[in-house]
Specification:
The complex is a heterodimer. By secondary structure, chain A is of the alpha/beta class. Chain A has 12 helices and 14 strands. In chain A, strand 3, helix 5 and strand 4 form a beta-alpha-beta unit. Chain A is globular, with a radius of gyration of 23 Å. Chain B contains 13 helices and 13 strands. In chain B, strands 8, 9, 10, 11, 12 and 13 form a 6-stranded antiparallel beta sheet that branches. Chain B has a 4-stranded antiparallel beta sheet with strand order 4-7-5-6. In chain B, helix 2 packs across helix 13 and helix 7 packs across helix 8.
Amino acid sequence: MSSEIRAAGVPPSGRPDRLDSYVDRYAARTAGMTASEIRALFAVASRPEVVSLAGGMPNISGLPLDVVGRAIQDLIRDQGTTAMQYSSGQGDPTLREQVVEVMGLEGIEAHPDDVVVTVGSQQAVDLVTRIFCDPGDVVICEAPSYVGALGVFRSWQCEVVHAATDEHGLVPDALREVIAACRSRGRRIKFLYTIPNYHNPAGVTLPSQRRTEILEICRQGDVLVLEDNPYGLLGFDGDPIRALRADEADGVIYLGSFSKTFAPGFRVGWVLAPHAVREKLVLAQESATLCPPSFSQMAVSAYLTHHDWQGQIKAFREMYRERRDAMVSALDDLMPAGSRWNVPGGGFYVWMTLPDGLDAKAMLPRAVTARVAYVPGTAFFADGSGAQSMRLSYCYPTPERIREGLRRLTGVIEEELDLQHTFGATQRGPHRGYDAPKPDLS
Amino acid sequence: MTESDQTATRPSHPWQPRHPRSDHPRVLVLAGGLSHERDVSLRSGRRVAEALHGIGVTVEVRDVDAGLLPLLTRHRPDCVVPLLHGETGEDGALREVLELVGVPYVGARPAACRMAFDKPIAKVIAARAGLRTPRSVTLPHATFRELGATGVMAALVSALGTPLIVKPARGGSALGCTVVRDAGSLPGAMVDAYAYGATALVEQLVEGSEVAVPVVDTGAGPRALPVVSIEPDGGIYDYTARYTAGSTEFVVPAKLPEELAAECARVAVTAHEALGLRDLSRSDLMIDAESRVWFLEVNVAPGLTETSTVPLAVRAAGLDLGTLVSDLVQAAVDRAD
């Protein structure tokens, strides 16, 4: 009997002993695209028995589906052939005008011509990286940073260098040191990727003084800033915070999204960039997708036109604030000594650091057994560090479920402390791999 | 839509195959569950359902939740194929319930599952049947806590030496398993194993060639399928090596001397019989430098995913996966009659 293992229709390869006939043909950038036991554990988190504090899905149950439904019905009836046709690679002109109005809430003055609509701001990160980064170029990221952006940087073979953060976000001195260290190594820094507001995953927000200082450091160091601001309008206190881009037009590329302020399923985000950069982004967009989806853009535009979208965002803020309060209250009541966490002023996430010696990634199987899930901190560091921390999401579960989830998590941590008491602090190498949940995990 | 509808693929019209054959039983494949191996189980379920569907069997894939028992009562299938990996699926619990409600199923009975799923117990039974299995010690966390971890670990290393492999006593897919080459890394390995369960198996590591040997019995007695040799790129057949297509070299039938292949088959069939298994099992074995075959563990619901070893052996034996599972289903139905 032949030992050849080959799927029907797959051309012959030099590796008939492999279950993937293309195994020798993939690009080097796929090297880390492997199965992960952590991602597999998240499969359990999708079951209703499990309290998932792992996902990042916006809670859109409060959306006026009747209003959205009527708007979409009208759109198809009145402009159906346009909505279902190719459109401009730069994006729908009406929507771009509305995007400028949205950004105006954060102090940004811009022209619709400098906006490029993207397939969620995730694609915006991809397009910016695509036009700026060659393999080996440095991207500076906060420590920790958004796992989806790290995936993009990895796929374009960038070197991610983390700069330290504290309870107020990116530390200016740390940024200075990282820039100097990269330059002394002869590395090309392409941009600083930063989430100034209600950071994913750290939950922190950059204060005004630091914003000024960081812009000045980047100006002096000739480092472009990529400002990712999906949560900027979801602050719980006061008016929206002034964007970095509002104070620096030439040195900042701004990314925005309707995924958290309306709904992620439309996949509509945008880039605001200096004119010359915008030209390249449009060409890159045409190369990637020809154009962002016409239907989605027009549907979002119709929603913004016919609905009190700012009132809806206010309702979202109140809902998320209630959940944030439930999480912080439960953490205060339940967590064992030695645990530390921040109190986010907006957004979706609390970043919790475990007592010394505990490893959130190693602990996840025990948590899944206890029917609670979170994302280990290792997902948010390019070098696989961060094992002592975890991201806790409060955006989706009800306040009661949040407390129950944290009650279970407390039991898990106490069992781990018991193990640590028995075996002492254990050393492990850096964790690597795709440790983040899939985007559709609540 | 139920949770199971969202998470498990099934034909668009439950019970309605593309080319229905009235002589086939209606089959319910159970996949998913709440164990750490849920994702693997879902993959196995999809694969088997597709294979059965392809030969005209009426099949549905379903998760295990509170809706299962009412379904078994209202729309009783002719046979269940339990493909839940890990606890509930392989520890016999689900099969106890299937027996309670009187639905025929493919695979071993609950008591046999309990013994096979527990690696230390399975090793004892295999050893009593004359099989060679690595020397090991089984300990709960409480023992280390009560007697002092330093002393117990020193005794372990003194008695077993290194290298070692530390595993959760129950569970699969190499989850929580760590190779320990120096005593300093033993505490971390223990902690990682206890993350998956209350008891850990500390076993002498047999260096050599890893092979898997499926055993099937469609009514004529257990027989081994061709031996699958496993050579992961990183040297360790861990979760990533198991479920990343292309990252492991499989050779089937393994390039072994005829007598050695026959010995592997004998060991697998002996384990299958000694543990009282039925229908389908997969034994994981090691062949050391002296060509001695070591029994490591046996699986009562072996993985049937796109990267699992059993489907490779099935194909190498000249069999079709759908037909084989269909034959196992028929045997289960006949057994119930």
